[in-house]
Design a protein that fits this description.
Number of domains: 2
Strand order of the largest sheet: 2-1-3-4-5-6
Distance between the termini: 14 Å
Number of helices: 13
Strand content: 5-15%
């Protein structure tokens, strides 16, 4: 018998970022599996909750009965204080530790590190998307390996047939946040103007200043005629871009999994990315080229090796399609998480 449970997520569930897509699809999949899943929409200020929002969130979490396992979104699990007051067994969801985010002050990083460590210690179980994140929690946060389960994100099979356009389209998808390395990608593209290509960067703005800096960088590098900062697009438009692309590129500085890489592979797109975090797990050998993070020159060389060699691009395309065919579906993700909920609920009885 499937266990009733709750899933606490801050803000709008339909937000189009990897973490929110994962959690929305997991919630849907658990319900399909037969779990009575109560969705708690917490205030949207996490991972930097106001005092009032934290108090409101705690009141909602404390109301969850002790027999109902409670999945906590990564922002809440990583930044939430006072969770010792929660009676329900907590199942933390850690996409990647918040203390590893880009652009944090020393004090903020230390605070998040301490908060996350305390919540890791009190969790009944933890769900992670990758072997890398599991290793980080075990080695750096002292998590019990037996209490950390890998539930890799699922993928949807493409709805459109691949029809790469000419000149080759380089597609990049990721929120306009410093961690995603769009600035590195732009510098790399500026070194490839002798080749024929165009690029589209899809992603909602994380903050206005960074988005403006990227737009200014496009102008400064003279890439305005070849690079489009598309912002957030509708799912159908994104699917069309995937179908027309020749390759996928993201110069990320860190990923706990990297759902967009899996989305590229399932569509048979070779990947140019960085050797950091979980990326080497998500982008296996023979499906793309990985460069050191933060190195625009190396990233440009990686892009050139795929763009400038049609035989190599064909080889990587075939490898990407094979790897993509083996990726899990979302219901498989829900099965893994559901078994965890069942075990946690049994222990709580």
């Amino acid at each position: 018998m499937t266990a009733p449970a709750a899933f606490a997520i801050p803000g709008e569930l339909t937000t189009r970022t990897g973490g929110y897509i994962y959690e929305r699809r997991l919630l849907e999949g658990l319900r399909t599996r037969g779990h009575d899943m109560a969705h708690q929409r917490l205030p949207d200020s996490f991972p930097d909750p106001t005092q009032a929002d934290m108090a409101q969130a705690l009141a909602m979490l404390e109301a969850v009965p002790p027999e109902r396992p409670l999945i906590l979104d990564g922002f809440v699990f990583g930044a939430g204080e006072g969770l010792e007051r929660v009676r329900a067994p907590i199942v933390g969801m850690v996409h990647h530790p918040l203390a590893l985010e880009e652009g944090l002050s020393t004090a903020r990083r230390a605070h998040l590190r301490a908060t996350e460590a305390a919540n890791v210690a009190r969790a009944a179980h933890i769900l992670v998307p990758s072997p890398h994140t599991r290793q980080v929690l075990v080695e750096r946060y002292g998590a019990d390996p037996a209490l950390v389960t890998i539930a890799p994100p699922g993928v949807d099979r493409p709805t459109l047939t691949r029809a790469p356009e000419a000149p080759p389209l380089i597609l990049s998808v990721g929120i306009l946040h410093p961690r995603k390395g769009h600035d590195v990608l732009l510098d790399a593209l500026a070194a490839l103007t002798d080749l024929d290509w165009r690029a589209v960067i899809v992603g909602k703005s994380h903050d206005a200043a960074h988005a403006a800096a990227l737009a200014a960088q496009v102008d400064r590098l003279g890439l305005g005629g070849r690079v489009t900062l598309a912002g957030e697009v509708e799912p159908g438009e994104l699917e069309a871009l995937y179908s027309r692309a020749a390759l996928f590129a993201l110069a990320t500085r860190y990923e706990g999994y990297g759902m967009v890489f899996a989305e590229a592979l399932v569509r048979g797109l070779p990947v140019v990315a960085t050797r950091t975090g979980a990326v080497p797990d998500t982008v296996p050998a023979g499906t793309g080229v990985l460069a050191p993070p933060g190195d625009a020159r190396a990233f440009a060389a990686a892009l050139r090796s795929v763009l400038g060699d049609t035989a190599e691009r064909a080889r990587l395309t075939e490898g990407a399609a094979l790897a993509g065919a083996d990726l899990p579906r979302w219901q498989e993700t829900a099965e893994i998480a559901g078994e965890v909920l069942d075990r946690v609920a049994a222990c709580a009885r």
